[in-house]
Amino acid sequence: SQQGEEDPQALSIQEGENATMNCSYKTSINNLQWYRQNSGRGLVHLILIRSNEREKHSGRLRVTLDTSKKSSSLLITASRAADTASYFCATPLYNQGGKLIFGQGTELSVKP
Amino acid sequence: NAGVMQNPRHLVRRRGQEARLRCSPMKGHSHVYWYRQLPEEGLKFMVYLQKENIIDESGMPKERFSAEFPKEGPSILRIQQVVRGDSAAYFCASSPATGGVSTEAFFGQGTRLTVV
């Protein structure tokens, strides 16, 4: 079964609006990571939030982590057409940075 | 510092042929991970290697798939006697030796395998 589950599976918004994606996971974690994947391309690491952090910002990205609810959210503010991509959350197992368990992803479409 | 390099980017094989996918980790990284992404799905972990050692192959199919990370040269994911169901994007990631709380993995662009 998936460690991470994203919600919603697909999201369509207008340019300038905010986009919020959620991720739930099952087991204890050391950190949670968000990645972006443009169609047919590789993954780009967006942000890593540690288990002792509650919120983290990077440019137009804001990530929250609630370990009591085993959930995280990714907020993209003032979205642009270039933000159109699939977004995945991922958690490492056994403190192994690269062995990640990915969710199914949220497909974001930002219309100009 | 070049990123994780995968080649080829696209690979077409006929059923029954062998596919070899190569991954060169980032400089200074000694941990390599392979993932498979089927269409419309997330990435699934396949195997974790360090130089000359397979650490965790719990995600590898039992037959036809093998991986290695030799002392010299890139990591190789090998698929023998490919079938149509092997068609997918295969991603490699690398991370440094330290496996701390905030260790980040860096991904290559992937190899898209098409079996015809």
Structural topology:
The complex is a heterodimer of chains A (112) and B (116).
Chain A: E1 4-7, E2 10-14, E3 19-25, E4 31-37, E5 43-50, E6 55-58, E7 61-66, E8 71-76, E9 85-92, E10 100-102, E11 106-111
Parallel strand pairs in A: 2-11
Antiparallel strand pairs in A: 1-3, 3-8, 4-5, 4-9, 6-7, 7-8, 9-10, 9-11
Chain B: E1 5-7, E2 10-13, E3 19-24, E4 31-37, E5 43-50, E6 53-56, E7 65-68, E8 75-79, E9 88-95, E10 106-107, E11 111-115
Parallel strand pairs in B: 2-11
Antiparallel strand pairs in B: 1-3, 3-8, 4-5, 4-9, 5-6, 7-8, 9-10, 9-11
How is this structure best described in words?
- The complex is a heterodimer of chains A (112) and B (116).
- Chain A has 112 residues and is mostly beta strands.
- In chain A, 0% of the residues lie in helices and 57% in strands.
- In chain A, the strands form two sheets. In chain A, strands 2, 4, 5, 9, 10 and 11 form a six-stranded mixed β-sheet that branches. A five-stranded antiparallel β-sheet of chain A has the order 1-3-8-7-6, with no helix packed on it.
- In chain A, a hairpin with a 5-residue loop joins β4 (31-37) and β5.
- In chain B, the strands form two sheets. In chain B, strands 2, 4, 5, 6, 9, 10 and 11 form a seven-stranded mixed β-sheet that branches. In chain B, strands 1-3-8-7 form a four-stranded antiparallel β-sheet, with no helix packed on it.
- Chains A and B meet through β4, β5, β9 and β10 of A and β4, β5, β9 and β10 of B.
